[in-house]
Amino acid sequence: MSDLQNGTVFHFESGTVGRFGHRKIKFLRAANTGYLVEFLPDPEARNVPETLRGTRPDIEFIGRKILPHSELYGGLLDGTLEIDEDDHVFIDHSQSFKPELVASLAERPAQDLILRYASVMLMREICHEKGIITKTRREIRKIEAEILTRLPHRIDELNAKVDGRRRHPFRRRKTPQYSTTAQTLLEWDKKLRGQGFSGLADNRYLSGNRLCKLHPVVARIVRQKIDELVTLEQIPIAAVHSGISDAVKQERQDQEDALSRREAEGEDISEAEWEALQKLRPPSVGTVSKWVASLAPLEAMLRGRGPDWLLSNCLSVGLGMQVERAGQITMIDEYTADVFAIIPFAFLIYWLGEQKVAELGIDGSKPLRVVVSIMIDAYTGCILGLQIRATADPDLAKRTIMMSLMDKTKIAAACGAEGAWDHVLRPEKILHDAGSAYVACSTDMLCASLRIENMTAPKAKAFIRGLMERVFRTLHETLLAKIPGKAFSDTVKRGDYDAEAEAILTLDDLIQVITIWVVDIYHNSSSFGRDGLTPNDLWRHEMAFGKGGRPVPDLKTMTHVFGTTLKRKARQTGIRVMHADYSSKDFMKEYLRKPNRDFRIRWWEEDISQIQVEIRPNEWMPLEVMDRRARGISVYEWDLLRRHEYLKRNPADDEVRQRAQSRIDAMLEEKIATSRKVARKALTAEEVARWEEETLRYYVTPSTEISSEQSHGLYGAPVRPATQESAVEPEDDQPQRKPTRKQPGRRTKPNWQSGTME
């Protein structure tokens, strides 16, 4: 019964009906030690407790009796006391401070409740210290100054207990400048003893006359006109008030005409009827505004905004979209950055092309706002792809998706980021809005080639893509809003601020700043993760202990999907792209059948280790690069490597080479015959195949090595000691040839069929 010792009692509203010990009772009023209840006649009562019987045990008690608080409390616990659920109210009469109750109130009522409780408890403590037994107004006036002195410290203590339970701390601490009157303190003390802690709550904000003050006819007209005029057109309040005023005036004129007709017919009209007619006055604009505002929020939004806006902004979602693993759902969207960047005109030409620049009317004289495209994983919150362009187009979406399939650590290091950007996976689903870049046919084909489901978010379901919108908002508020040259949401907020003139960042600077923010700030912030973990923590845990992510496509698929289609002619060294040769043994067989043929190739600038060549319609063959230095690097790294090698060359060597070549050309022109007849004989298919095989006998690629059988004859006959015993004899499978004597002055002619010289 510890709760009883602490003063836990309950309040029952007068008239509450229940059953106590199988007896029907009715609560009348509160007493000092309990409640006065009336035991009602109940013919069905049985097993009446001894305490409820009269002087004679055989006669049940009927009448009024005081039940103690302890007995009522115990009856509620053991089920002896049963209260009709439709006719009772329980109020905790405990006088202890309850922070949960204070935290649930608004700021003003909460501060008033803390002030009252602190004042009453200080009054009791001081009276106990000074030995004041009977609390009267005279005695309380003597200690008002001491209560006021100690009151601020006590209020601070109670506020500290409440702050931890409130979502937002109190903006102010209410401390009275003057002491409360003694009579008020005694009234608060009485409420605390009789009604408990909750009885000190101030309900003055609920006061006021809430009855309609308009004439019933005017009120009917106001409701009717609000239903007609408060629509999706969002008519101004002034227009609504004008319509209501016209309707009220017309109604008054109609009633006045009716009274005039009755009076003309000889009927007596009382003064009360004429006075009632004068009460038909149009309401004020403020009254109409209050009536419109009094509409239920749901009804007001339906009338003024429509169902689409309601679903888009006020839809209750509960837990929202559920994601179980990394890569299950990724989101992609673009956002026009709220900052101007300085972009060189030459780079714009390279970036967009001359035709696109002309269409946009860009001359390179002013800074431009760029478009930031982001792809994010819904489970971990990690950003998988980031692209910055001058305009949004399908190619922007394509490159953002491509970036999610690549390791971006080199990009992060080049921008100066400390962390690694190694978040790589193949998404299962890509969720986006209905933007033209994402619903384009090229984007659908891209996702189909990568075995990725392309999904469009339902209309008016903004909560599904809330994570993406949050990232854009955070990027603007925490980073872009601090940069000079920012663009405002509208011209009114911008004022006289010249954003284009204040721009200081170039495009390279903007890319560097955003990349560092993504890698080192966003991925390491717990506010962007879940359960107190950062996106990096969630990613590492998922990769180590979770289900992991889908493997990214191989180089062949990446080249086929993201590569650029070109046309090239083949030669003996293969196909040359960006000063690098690509070939294979199987491809050279195709080349020998038709040497002058144009081949379609697909070449991916992010990895030039391999290209795809179309040997037949819709049949592609991979070709590897011949130069080992070009394996596993991008075209940009390859270009830097070649530039570095060129700079190491000696210019004098080029001059020597050119002079030597000139001398050789002059010598050949003098010595070579101007004409020569060569007789060619027709070859059979077997001979063509044999010679084709011979031409490819010594073909070597970086991925293959020369076998001992292949190497025989490549560098001539094997080297042996020059002795008579080691004379080379002809092999049995080759016929011996008779030595022929050359006649003087006769030139031999090649025999292309037999390989001998005639």
Q: State the CATH architecture of the largest domain.
A: 2-Layer Sandwich
Output mean pLDDT: 75
- Total strands: the figure is 18
Rg computed from alpha carbons, rounded to a whole number of angstroms:
47 Å
Q: State the shape.
A: elongated
Runs in which pLDDT lies below 50 for 5 or more consecutive residues are 1-7, 50-59, 673-680, 713-735, 747-758
Number of helical segments? 29
Work out the strand percent: 5-15%
Tally of individual domains: 5
Based on helices, strands and strand pairing, what is the structural class? alpha+beta
The CATH topology of the largest domain is what? Nucleotidyltransferase, domain 5
CATH class of the largest domain: Alpha Beta
Distance between the termini: 128 Å
* Helix coverage percent: 40-55%
Query: What's the name of the CATH homologous superfamily of the largest domain?
Result: Ribonuclease H-like superfamily/Ribonuclease H
Major sheet attributes:
6 strands, antiparallel
Strand arrangement across the biggest beta sheet? 13-16-17-18-15-14
Descriptors:
single chain; 758 residues; alpha+beta; 5 domains; six-stranded antiparallel β-sheet; five-stranded antiparallel β-sheet; 41% helix; disordered N terminus
Describe the structure.
This protein has 758 residues and is an alpha+beta fold. The protein folds into 5 domains: 2-92, no CATH class; 99-206, no CATH class; 216-312, no CATH class; 330-545, Nucleotidyltransferase, domain 5; 555-647, no CATH class. The strands form 4 sheets. A 6-stranded antiparallel sheet has the order 13-16-17-18-15-14. A 5-stranded antiparallel sheet has the order 5-4-3-2-6, with helices on one face. A hairpin with a 2-residue loop joins strand 2 and strand 3. The longest helix has 28 residues, at 237-264. The protein is elongated. The termini are far apart. Mean pLDDT is 75; it is low at 1-7, 50-59, 673-680, 713-735 and 747-758.
